[in-house]
Amino acid sequence: MEAAEEMFAEQGVLGTRIEDISKRAGVAVGTLYNYFEDREQLVAALMSRRRARLVKALDEVSESARGRTWHEEFEDFLRATLTHLERHRRFFSILVQGELLPPRRAGDETHGSGLDDVYARMERLVRRGVAEGVLKSTFAPLYPSLLLGMLRSALVHDRYTDMPGPFLALLEPYRDFFLTGAGAPRGNP
After folding, report:
1. Which pLDDT belongs to residue 188?
2. Which domains, from first to last, does the chain contain?
3. What number of other Cβ atoms are within 10 A of residue 142's Cβ?
């Protein structure tokens, strides 16, 4: 899996052959085909593994938030997500930049983004924020999508910035943007 992630990051998903991965991993091509039907199944397995690790980290944030403020949990949530994206920056970047898998086929759970679990953690975080009066309830159903999009935008930002820095540098602006918005108070130029 590590060899596959490295190769996908270096050559892109569509430019990487199973033979390239097997060579990097130091195993026979047939060995990979014993575990994965094709490249797309390998990408899906890798995405599933990365998603599972992120979900585990987010669950740990939630567990450790007991007795702490919502703001502390929110900041830890952002930190955990940005740290995960940083660790696998090149791999996630190529996926976001357009080299995505074919559309999910009906009944096929191996394809797709696998973000449902992450989204569910965002919904839980938003529900807590609304219940504690930290977040406005008016548009609360939109907040998980906005938060997910904002965190995915770190990868888009990476593509369009001449000198991208560590994703953790985005923690403060993302936190502030999510909590206060981008608009200047009305009446101010």
Report:
1. 55
2. 44-99+109-180 (1.10.357)
3. 10
